[in-house]
């Protein structure tokens, strides 16, 4: 997962901190927005694991800190549910203006309720997924139960949540009480996925039933049996990410990828944009690319890095084959390689471009109970690796144009 730190400005002029998670080996086919839990932040483990699972399916994820939380500007005491929704709208505008308009909105806990409210105002959104969301935003007030009286009486109070102190003002409660989620759900007109754990002790499972009942189709419910509210178990949050990626494929357009086929050992494909190159070697798919400074996307190794990798892999395999046949105690082989064009030592014609030769530095690291004689013999065997021999042989490449059908 590639991660970019970005910032955008909300409706009140505050700068909000965000992370844009991108697929490692391709351009994203869709963008998603992630709304974190009440008083949480963009870097919670569940948020990161869900984002990672989505990027593996080609979906980019923008996860950000709401106003006054994490690394975002502003005072949390002056925020409320409405400002959270407005922050989501600002995030959607940022994506639309700088990347692509988001098609997916994901929210965890109160962030799930905010996602439902925000989705109504974001035309590009095609699908909404909620995780452990309350059926009424006011539900979150039970977390403040010990201080509700003080908030009502004095207009504000300090509340401790997960060991952290927050100032909650009366306007926050008043704002929650004025929100009617059921009216929003009945007019949402977006695909909705409700994920909830029966063992959720923060937001009871009944909330999921109410959300599901109020919404119109297309809607889906998936139980997260055994998970806690925060999805603190990595397997649970990763599972959620995979579920959302699979479910959303019915509601967003995903470009079809024509499989590479050939009667040769390897087939390679590159379009008219950039240098990201698809490779099918037997049954195995690979990506090659150039660095960003050379105009590529850096989604994969360069051609010469792949060539070095081929030499390194062949070297390691050859040494292990030999050691196993000899029953030597070779536990692990590491081959460190670098490639460059260099001059022969004592070059007499270095001013001529053709004087440069292809040069590989290969450092072989052997781990195991090996004698000095065995180690030296393995170094000799490395010279006999098939790829090494091929690189030293005269090579002929026959090139033909495939006839058009």
Q: Helicity level, as a percent range?
A: 25-40%
Q: How far is the first residue's CA from the last residue's CA?
A: 39 Å
Q: Class of the largest domain in CATH? A: Alpha Beta
What is the average of the pLDDT values?
Answer: 89
Can you identify the CATH superfamily of the largest domain?
A: Alpha/Beta hydrolase fold, catalytic domain
**CATH architectural designation of the largest domain:** 3-Layer(aba) Sandwich
Q: Would you report the number of β strands?
A: 15
Radius of gyration (CA) equals 28 Å
> Which structural class matches the secondary elements?
alpha/beta
CATH topology of the largest domain: Rossmann fold
- Taken in chain order, the helices and strands follow as EEEHEHEHEHEEHHEHEHEEEHEEHH
Largest sheet: 8 strands, mixed
How is this structure best described in words?
- With 405 residues, the chain is of the alpha/beta class.
- The strands form four sheets. An eight-stranded mixed beta sheet has the order 1-2-4-3-5-6-9-10, with helices on both faces. The protein has a three-stranded antiparallel beta sheet with strand order 11-12-13, with no helix packed on it.
- Strand 5, helix 3 and strand 6 form a beta-alpha-beta unit.
- Helix 1 packs parallel to helix 8 and helix 2 packs across helix 3.
């Amino acid at each position: 997962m590639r991660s970019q730190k970005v910032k955008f400005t909300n409706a009140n002029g505050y700068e909000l901190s965000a992370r844009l998670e991108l697929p490692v080996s391709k351009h994203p086919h869709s963008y998603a927005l992630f709304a974190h839990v009440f008083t949480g932040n963009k870097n919670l483990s569940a948020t990161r694991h869900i984002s990672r699972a989505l990027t593996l399916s080609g979906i980019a994820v923008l996860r950000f800190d709401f106003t006054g939380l994490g690394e975002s500007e502003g005072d949390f005491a002056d925020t409320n549910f409405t400002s959270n929704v407005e922050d989501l709208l600002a995030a959607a505008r940022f994506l639309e203006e700088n990347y692509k308009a988001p098609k997916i909105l994901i929210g965890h806990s109160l962030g799930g309720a905010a996602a439902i409210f925000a989705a109504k105002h974001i035309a590009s959104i095609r699908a909404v997924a909620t995780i452990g969301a309350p059926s009424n935003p006011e539900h979150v007030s039970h977390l403040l139960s010990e201080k509700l009286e003080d908030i009502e009486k004095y207009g504000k109070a300090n509340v401790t949540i997960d060991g952290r102190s927050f100032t909650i003002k009366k306007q926050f409660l008043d704002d929650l009480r004025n929100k009617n989620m059921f009216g929003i759900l009945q007019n949402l007109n977006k695909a909705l996925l409700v994920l909830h754990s029966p063992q959720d002790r923060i937001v009871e499972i009944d909330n999921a039933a109410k959300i599901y009942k109020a919404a119109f189709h297309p809607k889906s419910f998936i139980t997260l049996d055994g998970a806690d509210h925060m999805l603190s178990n990595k397997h649970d949050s990763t599972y959620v990410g995979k579920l959302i990626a699979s479910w959303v494929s019915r509601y967003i357009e995903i470009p079809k990828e024509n499989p590479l086929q050939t009667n040769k050992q390897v087939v390679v494909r590159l379009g008219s944009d950039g240098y990201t190159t698809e490779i099918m070697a037997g049954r195995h798919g690979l990506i090659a690319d150039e660095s960003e400074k050379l105009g590529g996307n850096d989604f994969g190794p360069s051609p010469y890095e792949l060539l070095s990798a081929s030499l390194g892999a062949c070297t390691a395999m050859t040494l292990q084959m030999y050691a196993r046949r000899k029953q030597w105690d070779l536990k692990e082989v590491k081959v460190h390689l670098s490639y460059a064009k260099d001059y022969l030592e004592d070059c007499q014609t270095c001013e001529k471009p053709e004087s440069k030769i292809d040069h590989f530095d290969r450092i072989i690291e052997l781990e195991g109970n090996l004698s000095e004689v065995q180690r030296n013999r393995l170094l000799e065997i490395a010279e006999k690796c098939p790829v090494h021999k091929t690189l030293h042989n005269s090579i002929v490449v026959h090139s033909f144009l495939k006839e058009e059908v």
